[in-house]
TrEMBL record:
Classification lineage: Bacteria, Pseudomonadati, Bacteroidota, Cytophagia, Cytophagales
Family matches, as PANTHER family: UDP-N-ACETYLGLUCOSAMINE 2-EPIMERASE
Domain UDP-N-acetylglucosamine 2-epimerase: 22-367
Species whose genome carries this gene: Algoriphagus confluentis
Name of protein: UDP-N-acetylglucosamine 2-epimerase
SUPFAM superfamilies referenced in this protein's UniProt entry, alphabetically: UDP-Glycosyltransferase/glycogen phosphorylase (SSF53756)
C-alpha cells in the first residue's frame, strides 16, 4: 500500500487533480489523503471545499492561512503564514505519507512545499518545467520542482526544460500530458438546459467566456490593463453574452474583481461567476464562441473544444501554446477586433497537451518507481 498525500489550494489545481483522485479512489494499492488550504477555505473566493465534499472526497486536514488583502505585503505575509502552519502540519504528519502530490505554481503551494523540505517529504510535482514570464508564479513553480523527488510534466519540451533547471539528466521526469484533459472525457458535461437550470444562464446565446487574472510581475500596470479589458467587454456585450469568472487572489487582484462586479451590475448581458466548478466551467467553454483572458485553461484545454483564445498580456508568456491561441496586448481595440473575427471561426488543429489516460500513467509510474523512493 502506497500512502499518498494530495496538496490542493484552489479550484484550479483541484479541477486538474480530479481524474487522479478518482483513479486513486478505485486503486486498492493506494491510500490517499487530501490536505486542503488556500482559497478552498475562503468565503470571498467561493469556499470551494464544498465542491471537494460534494464530489465525495473528505479533507484529511484543513489549513487556513490566506489574508484578505492583495498588496505585495499581504501576499508575502500569507506565504509566510502558510509556511508556518505547514511546518506544524509536517511536524505532526510527515510520517503519514510515502509521497505527496503538489501541482502547479501558486504561492500557497510553494509555501507548503518549502515547509516540507526539512522533513524530507517526498514531493511529486505536476506541471513543472513550464514558463510564465508575466507571473511570479514562474518562480514558485521552479522552486517546487527543485524541492521535488519526481516530476510529471505535460509535454516533452517541458521535460527538457526541467532537466536543464534541475541540472540532472538522471532526474525522474515523466511526460504524461495534461491531467486536466482527462476531465473532458470522464466528466459528463451539462446540457444547455441543465446549465440554465443550475446557473440561470442561457448558452444558446452567442457567448464569450472571460477569465482574466492580474499580472504579478508588472503589477503596477494592472489598473491600466483592467480598464482596457473592461472597455472591450462593454463594447462586446452589445453583440455577445459575456461570462466572467473571477480572478485568483494575486497581487492587485481586487482591481479586476471590483471592476468585474461593477460590470455585472451595469450590463444585463455580462454575467459574473465566482466559481463554476470543473463540470460547469468546461460546459461553458464547450458552448462559448471564444475565450478571452490570460489563464492556463485557455492554453491547455480550449483546443480540445476547438475554441480560439485571445491570450492577453505576458502572464502566460513562455508557455507552449497551440495555434488556437492568439497573443494580444491589453488593448481594447485589438481585443474587440480579434474577438469579432475569431468568434466566427472554429479551431481545427490538435491539442498538443493531450495524452491518453494520464491518471493511469501517473499511478503506474508511481508504483513502478516507488521502490526507488522508499
Amino acid at each position: 500500500m502506497i500512502r499518498v498525500g494530495v496538496l490542493t489550494s484552489s479550484r484550479a489545481d483541484y479541477g486538474i487533480y480530479l481524474p487522479l483522485l478518482k483513479a486513486m479512489e478505485k486503486d486498492e494499492d493506494i491510500d490517499f489523503k487530501i490536505i486542503v488550504f488556500g482559497t478552498h477555505l475562503s468565503k470571498l473566493h467561493g469556499y470551494t471545499l464544498n465542491q471537494i465534499e460534494s464530489d465525495g472526497f473528505k479533507a484529511f486536514r484543513k489549513i487556513e492561512s490566506l489574508l484578505v488583502g492583495d498588496t505585495p505585503n499581504a501576499l508575502a505575509s500569507a506565504y509566510a503564514i502558510t509556511a508556518l502552519k505547514f511546518s506544524e502540519f509536517w511536524e505532526n504528519y510527515h510520517g503519514e505519507f510515502d509521497v505527496v502530490f503538489a501541482l502547479g505554481d501558486r504561492f500557497e503551494m510553494a509555501a507548503a512545499v518549502a515547509a516540507s523540505m526539512p522533513y524530507q517529504v517526498k514531493i511529486a510535482h505536476l506541471h513543472g518545467g513550464e514558463t510564465t514570464l508575466g507571473a511570479i508564479d514562474n518562480i514558485y513553480r521552479h522552486s517546487i520542482s527543485l524541492s521535488s523527488s519526481f516530476h510529471f510534466v505535460s509535454t516533452e519540451a517541458f521535460k527538457k526544460r526541467l532537466i536543464q533547471l534541475l541540472d540532472d539528466d538522471q532526474a525522474e521526469i515523466f511526460n504524461v500530458g495534461s491531467l486536466s484533459l482527462e476531465n473532458l472525457v470522464t466528466i459528463p458535461l451539462l446540457t444547455i438546459d441543465e446549465f440554465w437550470q443550475k446557473w440561470g444562464i442561457d448558452l444558446n446565446i452567442n457567448t464569450i467566456l472571460v477569465t482574466v487574472h492580474p499580472e504579478t510581475v508588472a503589477f503596477n500596470l494592472n489598473d491600466h490593463y483592467c480598464k482596457e479589458v473592461c472597455l472591450a467587454l462593454e463594447h462586446l456585450s452589445s453583440s455577445f453574452q459575456i461570462i466572467i469568472t473571477m480572478p485568483n487572489p494575486d497581487t492587485s487582484g481586487m482591481v479586476f474583481r471590483l471592476a468585474f462586479e461593477q460590470l455585472g451590475k451595469q450590463y444585463t448581458n455580462i454575467k459574473v461567476i465566482e466559481n463554476f466548478g470543473t463540470q460547469s466551467y468546461f460546459t461553458c467553454m464547450k458552448y462559448s464562441k471564444l475565450m478571452i483572458g490570460n489563464t492556463s485553461s485557455g492554453i491547455v484545454e480550449a483546443a480540445t473544444f476547438r475554441k480560439f483564445v485571445l491570450n492577453l498580456g505576458d502572464r502566460q508568456k513562455g508557455r507552449l501554446a497551440g495555434e488556437n491561441v492568439i497573443h494580444l496586448a491589453f488593448d481594447s481595440d485589438q481585443i474587440v477586433e480579434n474577438a469579432m473575427a475569431y468568434s466566427k471561426k472554429q479551431f481545427e488543429g490538435e491539442n498538443l497537451y493531450y495524452k491518453h489516460n494520464s491518471s493511469s500513467t501517473i499511478l503506474r509510474t508511481l508504483k513502478e518507481t516507488y521502490a526507488n523512493f522508499s
